[in-house]
Design a protein that fits this description.
single chain, alpha+beta, Alpha-Beta Plaits, globular
Length: 68
């Protein structure tokens, strides 16, 4: 089984959803892991993971989307 690599982390659920949607639109499978505290949302991150072989593509897409 191929490992998944963390490519993005944020504290904003909205930002994580936007980045996840953009990756999925570009046929990059994404897993989202919410590590935020359920009581205090300023503790912990929401992390996005992609398959290791798509890491470079995903990172380029994220960087491109964050520049716009």
């Amino acid at each position: 089984m191929e490992p998944w690599i963390k490519i993005f982390a944020t504290r904003s659920i909205a930002e994580a959803s936007i980045v996840r949607g953009m990756l999925e639109e570009n046929q990059v499978p994404v897993q989202q892991l919410n590590k935020q505290d359920s009581s205090y949302l300023n503790f912990g991150d929401i992390e996005l993971y992609v398959p290791a072989h798509l890491k470079d593509t995903a990172v380029q897409l994220v960087q491109k989307s964050l520049l716009n």
